[in-house]
Amino acid sequence: MSQDDWKREVGEAAVDYVREDSILGVGTGSTVNAFIDALGASGKRLEAAVSSSEATTARLQGLGIDVIELNAAGTLDLYIDGADEFDAHRRLIKGGGAALTREKIVAEASRRFVCIADESKRVGVLGKFPLPVEVIPMARSLVARKLVALGGQPEWREGVVTDNGNLILDVHNLDLVDPLGMERSINDIPGVVCCGLFARRPADTVLVGGPNGLQTL
Ligand code: 5RP
């Protein structure tokens, strides 16, 4: 089985968590796309969805699903999203698709966050995947210097502008033994909109697809 098969399997499994006629939070990425396709195929109806990116909004609307503003939805029961890395405590690195800020907002607005991932994303200690940080454009160099002071090697993801009109720095080689402490330190830098560490608000459940079938963390 390939990684795409694992994504499809875990996307299909996530449909079981969705309550008919609810308002669902939906993340971004290829695993989420597999979930959206499975949701469409299942025939399960939603009242509406809150989306974490323009790309996801287009895919949901393509299935005839009504996408509404988070401000109109209030607290959501469930948020489903992928990850670039997860650890045994269900802490995540996200933002490979540059949607981290809206993803963090929708996760925060949800009672339950079910993360869907495949075995290739599992790590003992977060940080093999460079940490995405969304920054206000005028603060790019300042934030980069502060991230170097925190021990990282930031790299500007040139050519990428987020849905919020900001830039992404991918930070290599950060020591993430204390992900919560690092999340706070990065959030404190003026000009940082959001960092891709999900330690303060980890996933509540991680569904993992892999060579030995599905696992629930
Ligand atoms: C987007 C994300 C995605 O969830 C993450 O990049 C995983 O993507 P994929 O499912 O394509 O591997 O955080 O900002």
Structural class: alpha/beta
CATH architecture title of the largest domain? 3-Layer(aba) Sandwich
Order of helices and strands: HEHEHHEEEHEEHEEHEEEE
Indicate the proportion of strand residues: 25-35%
Count of domains = 2
Kindly report the average pLDDT value.
97
**CATH topological fold name of the largest domain:** Rossmann fold
Distance between the termini: 21 Å
Total strands: the figure is 13
What is the CATH top level name of the largest domain?
A: Alpha Beta
Distinct ligands, ions and cofactors found in the model: ribulose-5-phosphate
Helix run count: 7
Tell me what the structure shows.
By secondary structure, this protein is of the alpha/beta class. It folds into two domains: 3-123 and 200-211, Rossmann fold (3-Layer(aba) Sandwich), CATH 3.40.50.1360; 131-194, Alpha-Beta Plaits, CATH 3.30.70.260. 31% of the residues lie in helices and 27% in strands. The chain contains seven helices and 13 strands. It has helices at residues 3-15, 30-42, 54-62, 70-73, 100-108, 140-149, 179-187; strands at 23-26, 48-51, 76-81, 85-86, 92-93, 110-118, 131-135, 153-156, 167-172, 192-195, 197-198, 205-210, 213-216. The strands form three sheets. Strands 2-1-3-6-12-13 form a six-stranded mixed sheet. α1 (3-15) packs across α2. The two termini are 21 Å apart. The mean pLDDT is 97. Ribulose-5-phosphate (5RP) is lined by residues 27-31, 81-84, 94-100, 103.
